[in-house]
Amino acid sequence: MRTLELLEHSLRQLFERLGAKLDLLVSGGAQQSASVRSMLIRLSPMLQRAVDDNLRQDEGVNLAPHRLRVLLDYDSYSQLSQPSIRRLKQELIASAKDYINDRQYRLSQPLALTLTYDPIASSPIVRADFGDSALSSKAADQISSTDVCYRLRSVSGPVAISIDLKNLKQGGDPVTIGRGHDNAVVIDDKSVSKFHATLAMNSEGRLFVADCGSMNGTFLNGQAVSRRSEITPGDVLSFGDVELRLERVE
């Protein structure tokens, strides 16, 4: 009899724990669904504006850009699970397709959307293009004919490093820095992580550096960069053991 009571007690505890875990999963799933809906409501109008701002005319037909790029701020992106990210991407593609069809725009190629994050950004960024170097008239008007250029030059060390930051554009995508060859700036040093940090210039021309969770850290004038920090010419950036000075190229 005693054995039966112990068995019943153990089974009751087991089912209670399973029920608690199930409740947690259900509530967590509900929170993720709410986050996806909230992001979709926020991002859909931004996608529509990006499409409208980059239309092209082809024999009287409005061609819509087929490449869409959505960059979330890190806090928003990190709160989404991988299934939620995939669902948000699918919902955004469906929303963009519906808008393009409703406006009777045409596509020259199948619609493609990239969803990722920008550690520099404080709010979502949405871009649309045709995958070539041509610019829409609105985008061209925003680019100055006298773009400021920067470079990174080694402060000390056995190997002299001088890197022109040609891809660092005002309001453009972040420039990635790391040991991996997929980065815009490759630093072949064991102390540098594969994807170490990013540099970015906002729409006002201000420069920022952000660490990407590197093993040995990113430092600005000797101070650790936890999220993002504004930088100016003359500042010394340390990526692992590599020290580079930011210079403005006249």
Q: Please, could you describe this protein's structure?
A:
By secondary structure, this protein is α+β, with helices and mostly antiparallel strands. Helix content is 33%, strand content 30%. The strands form four sheets. A six-stranded antiparallel sheet has the order 8-7-17-16-13-14, with no helix packed on it. A five-stranded mixed sheet has the order 10-9-11-12-15, with no helix packed on it. It is flat, with a radius of gyration of 24 Å. Residues 24-28 and 133-146 have low confidence and may be disordered.
Topology, pairings included?
Blueprint lengths: L1 H52 L2 E3 L2 E4 L2 E7 H5 L3 H21 L3 E2 L4 E7 L6 E5 L7 H5 L7 E6 L7 E3 L10 E4 L6 E2 L10 E5 L5 E5 L6 E3 L2 E2 L3 E4 L4 E4 L2 E8 L1
Parallel strand pairs: 2-4, 3-5, 9-10
Antiparallel strand pairs: 1-2, 3-6, 7-8, 7-17, 9-11, 11-12, 12-15, 13-14, 13-16, 16-17
Helix pairs in contact: 1-3
Strand order of the largest sheet: 8-7-17-16-13-14
- Mean pLDDT level: 83
Shape: flat
CATH topology value of the largest domain: hypothetical protein PF0899 fold
The appropriate CATH architecture of the largest domain is 2-Layer Sandwich
Annotation field: number of helices = 4
Estimate nothing, just give the exact number of structural domains.
2
Q: Can you identify the CATH superfamily of the largest domain?
A: FhaA, phosphopeptide-binding domain (DUF3662)
Rg over CA atoms: 24 Å
Query: What is the strand content?
Result: 25-35%
Order of helices and strands: HEEEHHEEEHEEEEEEEEEEE
Structural class: alpha+beta
The percent range for helix content is: 25-40%
Largest sheet, strands/sense/barrel: 6 strands, antiparallel
Terminus-to-terminus distance: 90 Å
Number of strands: 17
- Low-confidence parts lasting 5 or more residues at pLDDT below 50? 24-28, 133-146
CATH class of the largest domain: Alpha Beta
